[in-house]
Design brief:
This protein is of the alpha/beta class. It folds into 3 domains: 224 residues, Endonuclease, Chain A; 187 residues, 3-Layer(aba) Sandwich (Rossmann fold); 251 residues, Rossmann fold (3-Layer(aba) Sandwich), CATH 3.40.50.300. It is built from 28 helices and 25 strands.
Length: 682
């Protein structure tokens, strides 16, 4: 049996029935002639999960080539050493039946199995070391069967027991015989060969004898133990210093309005540092998402290296006791800096407020993406002596009053850096905007009008009387535009027409469609990922379903160019920092001012070698009578076009479209439902 006879999925996880080891690796290894594996971490414990596949591979005359970091256990090093010593003492032309019988019984003795595989030339190990202090941490594999078919896989899983069984890990497959996937396999094979033959410019690879001779294991341990992390120097720009001073002058209260990508997080961190120089205080940071609080923790550690940092979210069930313990410790060591970083959802609970209320220390509250900080009781001002709010979009585009109230809560706006100024001063890269037009069907316009009727029914005397129905209807109407069939019909030609081949992001719709290529209904993001793969992109999806570890690995791979394209829905809009994005294709039609302003700012972040960016936006045009639909699409057109490099010529194009639909600039510069902003955010 070969790979083509296996029932293979495009991805596997370490949990459940369809897990990495039993659903994929063991069946694949039983067909494998050569297994190439590169991992940051390897341990003999991995054999507990894949021993059946390894035994069959050995019995079939297969081989394993393994590249791993030097971070091996002492027991594994001893077993590897013994295996190579045994190989040296006897020239083994081939393994005899006694060997096969013996290794079949060794699933519970991983060290002996490891040694025997090496001794009998089934397994060869090489050691990879980076040229700097950082660790070798790549993770991918290539399997080749006896018919020459190949499978490549990559993802978060190391070759360890935890990697395949205990942790939550995920891998993705590319099959060499499938059109559109073969290039990914060839890329991984080329990467492995460069490593195995020590031709990678960033990694030095030693065979086991050489690594032992040069004491590589000891050297790496010395590195790890004798070097402390030093954060790269952070030089604040003049406008960041200005913002901090304005906040200080306002009694350590206020609100920063700073365009996405201009460094509001670092400005806030250094503002806190400035405060703590003269006024020791507990720092409480509040952010809307779990991934954001983890990013805040990473950044704060670089400045407040000795601080005790506690993350408060559903992923840390012991946060309450941790806070209580640190507050007790602080009574005996008042100079110890305590930092608590919480999601908005946890911050709002009585448990949280009671927990931090047990400390008599002064407190600073920093709220990131503060436009999502609704239900702000005035009593918070009694709890927090100092306050700082942050947002690129305190105004939604729909309601100026809610934005003013938000900023006033924190002490008023003390600094404003709009995107216009950030672009003019070179703090963000300039960009080209290219609208791509597709067309609505009669049925889609009918559905749109049904939702519009429901929206109208939610109002009486200019007041919203049914907010739940209003929110559902607004979202339903936008989904009609977002999932317009002509987008799917044109997607192949759209992607093939683009010149972008790396650092490319596609924002997908939040819905499902019937994918003719797959012959089944798929989520839009899954369908788009298949299209990207078919057009030669090494792509991955980026959604809320990936855990934080997977997301950060994807970000790292994307920044390095190991992944050329990401398919996303909304997870990249707030908080995730991927400055290497060079271009984006927007398929998710929306009418959320904040969303597309945040999205644009994220695309325009500076990055070495990045001189400009490109935004491609698929605009769905209805019939001339469906003006409300046209207004939704033209608002986004106008906002993206007005600050683009090619904005003048685009304005002429927009004017022609407005004339066709009997609309004016005033029609698309205003929003209809000011008072549902908070409900839509929620």
């Amino acid at each position: 049996m070969g790979f083509k006879q296996l029932s293979l999925e495009r991805s596997y996880i370490s949990c459940g029935n369809d897990n990495i080891s039993h659903a994929f690796l063991i069946p694949a290894l039983k067909c494998t002639k050569l297994y190439r594996r590169s991992v940051g971490f390897f341990s003999s414990g991995v054999f507990q999960t894949i021993v059946d596949g390894v035994v069959t591979l050995a019995r079939n005359g297969g081989n394993v080539q393994l590249i791993a970091s030097p971070k091996l256990s002492e027991d594994d090093i001893a077993a590897i050493k013994a295996g190579y010593a045994k190989r040296d003492k006897a020239i083994l032309d081939h393994a005899d039946e006694d060997f096969f019988e013996s290794i079949a019984q060794l699933g519970d003795n991983d060290l002996i199995l490891l040694s025997e595989l090496i001794a009998n030339k089934v397994l060869d190990i090489k050691i990879a070391v980076t040229e700097n202090i950082g660790a070798y941490h790549d993770k991918f594999g290539i399997l080749e069967d006896f018919d020459g078919n190949t499978i490549a896989f990559y993802g978060s899983a190391n070759s360890t027991l935890n990697g395949y069984q205990n942790n939550y890990e995920k891998i993705r497959l590319a099959r060499g015989w499938i059109p559109g996937e073969g290039e990914s396999v060839r890329d991984e094979l080329q990467e492995f060969d460069s490593l195995w033959n020590d031709k990678n410019e960033f990694v030095k690879v030693y065979d086991y004898y050489e690594s032992a001779k040069k004491n590589i294991f000891q050297i790496v341990e010395q590195r790890k133990g004798g070097t402390t992390y030093t954060a790269p120097p952070i030089t604040l720009r003049d406008y960041q210093q200005e913002a901090i001073q304005a906040w200080v002058d306002n009694g350590y209260h206020g609100f920063f309005v700073m365009a996405t990508g201009t460094g509001k997080t670092w400005t806030a961190i250094y503002a806190a540092k400035r405060l703590f120089e003269d006024n020791p205080a507990m720092l409480v940071v509040c952010a809307p998402y779990k991934h954001l609080i983890e990013q805040w923790a990473d950044d704060l550690k670089k400045i407040f290296r000795d601080a005790n940092i506690i993350l408060v979210s559903s992923e840390n069930p012991s946060w309450e006791s941790q806070i209580a313990q640190e507050i007790i410790r602080q009574r005996y060591n008042p100079n110890q800096q305590l930092v608590i970083i919480s999601t908005i959802a946890s911050f709002r609970t009585k448990r949280f407020m009671d927990s931090i209320g047990k400390s008599n220390q002064d407190k600073l509250l920093i709220v990131d993406e503060a436009h999502r900080f609704s239900d702000r009781p005035e009593s918070l001002k009694d709890t927090f002596k100092y306050m700082l709010g942050l947002s690129a979009t305190p105004y939604s585009g729909t309601s100026a009053q809610s934005g003013r109230e938000l900023m006033q809560f924190f002490g008023g706006q003390v600094f404003n850096l709009p995107i216009e100024d950030a672009l003019k001063k070179g703090f963000l890269v300039p960009y080209y905007y290219k609208p791509i037009f597709v067309y609505a069907t009669e049925e889609e316009e009918r559905q749109f009008n049904v939702f519009s009727g429901r929206i109208a029914s939610c109002f009486h005397n200019n007041r919203c009387i049914n907010p739940d129905l209003l929110v559902r209807s607004l979202r339903g109407r936008l989904r009609v535009i977002s999932m317009a069939k002509d987008k799917d019909h044109q997607i192949d030609s759209i992607i093939s027409s683009l010149s972008e081949k790396d650092h490319f992001v596609v924002y997908c719709g939040d819905g499902k469609l019937f994918d003719n290529r797959a012959g089944e209904e798929l989520r839009h993001i899954q369908s788009i990922k298949r299209v990207l793969t078919a057009h030669g992109y090494k792509s991955s999806q980026f959604t809320a379903k990936e855990n934080m570890k997977d997301r950060m690995q994807l970000v790292d791979a994307f920044n390095k160019g190991e992944i050329s394209a990401l398919a996303a829905i909304r997870c990249l809009d707030e908080g995730i920092n991927i400055p290497s994005i060079k271009s984006a294709l927007i398929l998710s039609s929306n009418d959320d001012y904040r969303e597309f302003v945040q999205r644009r700012g994220r695309i325009l972040r500076p990055y070495p070698g990045k001189t400009s960016a490109r935004i491609y936006d698929v605009i769905v045009l209805p019939s001339p009578l469906c003006k409300q639909w046209a207004k939704i699409e033209f608002r986004r057109f106008y906002e993206y076009a007005r600050l683009s490099i090619n904005g003048i010529e685009l304005q002429s194009e927009l004017d022609s479209l407005l004339l066709k639909y009997d609309l004016s600039m005033e029609d698309i510069d205003t929003y209809d439902y000011d008072d549902v902003e908070v409900q839509l955010d929620e």
